[in-house]
Amino acid sequence: MSASITLTHAASGSSLELVPDAGMVALSWTVAGDEVLALPCGRAEFLAAARTGGLPLLYPYANRLGSDQFAVCGRQVDLAHVPSLKRDDARHPIHGLVLRRRGWALSVLGPGALQAELDWGAHAELMDAFPFPHTLRATWTIAAGAGPGAASLSVRTEVLADRGVDVPAAFGWHPYFRVQDPDSARIRMAPASQVALGSSGLPSEGAVERARSGIGADTALPADLAVGRGQDALYLRSAPGSNPSRSPAASPMPSASPPPAGSLSPVASVVDAHRRIDILMDGHYPFVQVFSPRGASFACVEPMTAPTDGLRSGDFVVVAAGCAFAATFEMHVIPCLPASVPGSQT
Questions:
Q1: Which of 8, 17, 43, 101 is packed most tightly, with the most Cβ within 10 A?
Q2: 301-316 burial by CB neighbour count: b if 16+ within 10 A, else e?
Q3: Could you tell me if 171 and 248 are in contact, meaning their C-beta atoms sit under 8 angstroms apart?
Q4: pLDDT confidence of residue 2
Q5: Per-residue pLDDT tens for 163-221?
Q6: pTM attached to this predicted model
Q7: Which DSSP string corresponds to 256-281?
Q8: 129 with 152: CB under 8 angstroms?
Q9: Are 153 and 29 in contact (CB under 8 A)?
Q10: Are residues 331 and 217 in contact, defined by beta-carbon separation less than 8 angstroms?
């Protein structure tokens, strides 16, 4: 089994276990001894294959692509011959290229804070699949919450176009939130527009633009979703602070400091019998995938910088050469949940 590294934060009573040789996936996040994340199987089985569970990074594309071949930022990409490429049941590439990627350089930033960098251009197999040399950086930070027994986990992702070429970014994260009682647990959503997906899980023609304009029958959003009922839906955020436009701006390097408090807005909450997990995102995550397969005892609320198949549709972030792009989301665990959820519809 791959070796793991555990961050601890005494003030919040929480710890985060990450596996550097498995794509920096988080296997566990406990708050006061209570597990927040879910795995689909035992740890050894999970790490032996490119499966999703816990808290994995989906990079350089989140969700799936409609084809192995496409052109992006003036370069041709062909995934047809990439070994061990993760594919869905329809043989579409899914969940990116780093689920079990080794080669991360680690830096401990302080109690409960870790940074990992991946030099993309140093790995021939990554360049063969995504020919854009750059630096990928992720930072995890645990902190105490606002009340007794509360804790938060912040995840900041940076794409540094530091090798003289533009870099397309359409990444996301896939947190699996464990629930104790799926029958009573709920996913409560802040205002958003649903993006219609076809049977393959790819956006229907014109669906993203309809969601942006608010026109079309596919924009309705239930405010309160049950867990484990077969949900697999894409949403465009309409909460304050989201950025639904194409290609959000990148900043000149060095990248900006972490966003100030208040720049993140509520997106959803996973409400269980004993706690609430609030998910907040900054405006560089305009899309959210909600996933909870039938019979599951977990719910996923996935931040995405671009819609499904964004690299092929052209709906992605362009990080210009010499610039950097950063996106941040946070997860707040709150015990003894109140009756309502900030930012949710009632």
A1: 101
A2: bbbbbbbbbbbbbebb
A3: no
A4: 74
A5: 999 999 999 999 999 999 999 999 999 989 999 999 999 999 999 999 888 754 444 45
A6: 0.90
A7: PPPPPTTS-EEEEEEE-SSEEEEEEE
A8: no
A9: yes
A10: no
